[in-house]
Amino acid sequence: MEKQALRERVWDDLEESGVARFPFPPHGRIPNFAGASEAADRLAAQPEWESATTIKANPDAPQLPVRRRALRDGKTVYMAVPRLRDEKCFLKLDPDELEDYDAATTVSGSSTHGEQLGPDEIDRVDLIVSGSVAVTKDGGRIGKGEGYSDLEYAVLRELGLVDEETPVATTIHDRQLIDEAVTLAAHDVAMDLVVTPERVIRPEGSDQPAGLDWDLLDDERRDEIPVLRRLEEDT
Fold first, then answer.
1. Bridge partners of 93?
2. Angle at 116 between CA 219 and CA 151, to 5 degrees
3. Per its UniProt entry, which superkingdom is the organism in (predicted)?
4. 3-class SS at 192?
5. DSSP letters for 49-63
6. Looking at residue 186, what is its pLDDT?
7. Which member of 75, 126, 197, 209 lies 3.0 to 4.6 Å from 70 by CB, making a disulfide possible if both were Cys?
8. What domains are there in the chain, each with its CATH number?
């Protein structure tokens, strides 16, 4: 099946089964799901989490418990500015500097409470947490189709802030696990750790993208993302 057909099937299933949670509808987004908090707790029990001091997380609703748990565990959280549109393209949530973790970890609150930083100002990332629409049991991820999650990884890789050994995790509902194989392109980031409310899956390791694939970036995207312009100038 094509990726979009798989997305639609998963979105429909989450809605029809009653598993989907606010915001509604689940379609067109990284879908929130019943048990997201339990999945976050299960992720927090894994050694990759326990050894991490810095986490790069996505801003979507199902990973809100992950972001809150990270701050409560004393971990610094980095989030990308939407569409990497600013020169200072990352937000830093420092647990030592924040008073209201619940407010700071929402989509709107992160921009208010977080510190906006340029790529030279962020620390090395120990763990990446991504949102997913669907994931195969061998770690192939399907996002919502815009490509920003993979692009953020590639930018971090170009900056030397992650490498091949940096684990990438996702929290999903079991209904988002699919049996179909998904062919990963060279720029697609594979999941090393797939956590549901009920279980943990550690797929066999796949090679991660080594950085940006400039052939995939059209002029419009290069022009609208300042960090790409800067990295292109440095190559």
1. 77
2. 35
3. Archaea
4. coil
5. HHT-SEEEE--SGGG
6. 85
7. 75
8. 34-234 (3.40.50.10420)
